[in-house]
User: Fold Glycosidase from Bacteroides reticulotermitis.
Amino acid sequence: MKRVYLFITIVLLFTFSQSAQAAVIHKVAPSFWWAGMKNPELQILLYGDNISTSDVYISSKDIVLKEVVKQENPNYLLLYIDLSEATPQTFNIQLKQGKKQTTIPYEIKQREQGAANREGFNSGDVLYLIMPDRFANGIPANDLVPGMLEAKVDRNNSFARHGGDLKGIENHLDYIEDLGVTAIWLNPIQENDMQEGSYHGYAITDYYQVDRRFGTNEDFKQFVDRTHAKGLKVVMDMIFNHCGSENYLFKDMPSKDWFNFKGEYVQTTFQTVTQSDNYATEYAKKLAIDGWFTQVMPDLNQRNRHVETYLTQNSIWWIEYAGINGIRQDTHPYADFEGMADWCKAVNAEYPNFNIVGETWLGSNVLISYWQKDSKLAYPRNSYLPTVMDFPLMGEMNRAFDEETTDWNGGLFRLYEYLSQDVVYTDPMNLLTFLDNHDTSRFYHSDADTKNLNRYKQAMAFLLTTRGIPQIYYGTEILMAADKADGDGSLRADFPGGWAGDPVNCFDSQQRSAKQNEAFAYLQKLLQWRKGNEVIAKGTLKHVAPNKGVYAYERKSGNRSVVVFLNGNDREASIDLTPYREMLPKTTATDVLTGRKIELSNELTLESRGVYLF
Assistant:
């Protein structure tokens, strides 16, 4: 009998010991917050082993625990707390399960002075788009991080990681500033701990963590600070439509309704036009919007209030923590319309001077205009999205500078006709304009094409003087070329000189070719002239239909104006200036590009594919 009692005693002691152990907490998201935010409610997501049966208490007297939400999965708890009266402090979140108690310290920080007034990007800016893995490698030691799934770097493989990082970009801020752009847009920098293809960043596995192969969260904050010190803004790429399949929120779902089709893979049709199509079936809409990009990119359900809140808080967290100046939202029309509208409103309520641009990859200006804030075409719906991407103009520009221009079609007439339809837009100045980006063929498809530098010069002159917010893709200034037909990896080639041992360093003008230096100097002159130019940033636009292949337009603000003439012919062209008199207050002008004096008395002659800017 003594042996039996001893065994029972040992079992009871072991059971008591186990029950007294604290729960294992894997994630607290967000890990901290701030007092004094305009929206006083905070969602805290707790992820740990079997925590849903816990009673929850908080130690603060001026913070109210409003709601504790359990999910289907017992490993999650969602806490909603009220910070209306909260001061900066550290308090404890206590989880009690019988005799087991877990204490989670949580910090409410003091906001930086003026944080709510963060300045967004606008039409006075020019964005420089960088894919961090492909620009420059500042810290080779972080190329491989133990424990991360993609455990190789191979610069000969366009689909593999190459080792670029935040420090690499930071090391070349002088180059970027000297070029003359005013903002850096980074392709996603958040953790992408995927088996393969993680270099591009569009399959996020932790929304609150910078990918360790790029650096730490603190490294990113330092990068933003140093970029600001150079007078440059930072735009952060975000993806709320989907995440990576290695994200803990998918691998161990809080509940099946965090993802569309209950977490089961169903392919999207990519037909996001169904969002604005009056004739679309409900089935077609659901398949397009709720379908997944790929099997490894689970589609998030923004109709779930907890998902919407999680994503919204995440973007606000990065703005407040790192001090970024803008967000580019990937695949914007693929997500729930109302959910994304709520997100835009929430961000701009906290930061009235901030800007968001949505990727709106649609085939016409009418379809894109539907997505801009206060669009009459979408009424009574409202996306509250300030800026949309002008993909149709990209297409027109990529054709216009190759074709001959007539008085009725082709070439520069494409640009005239397209801009004459801007009546569909609520705010044409809040359109992101670009010749190419990381998803499209580069402006030059091959190195052989770069022999035609007139094409480049006309395109850059137009892009940087027409309405909208221009974006330039890294390497354009040195004539990097690529065709999407050769795969996305070719579009995202390494910047020459970003890695130790590169045979050519194009950050150094002495190592660039004569043609590369000509292109760089031309773009630099335009960008430096545009910087701080209120006529281009805020001026009205007036244009005249192409005449003898020549397209002309004026930007005007107050009594100041800028006039541009483009010759869309492969031959010299002379035009009578009578139709342009209201745009030409002077009889002479100085060309910004060459410094030459231009006579504007009766007739103007432009050389083949020539540009005048005065």
Summary: Confidence is low (pLDDT under 50) at residues 1-19.
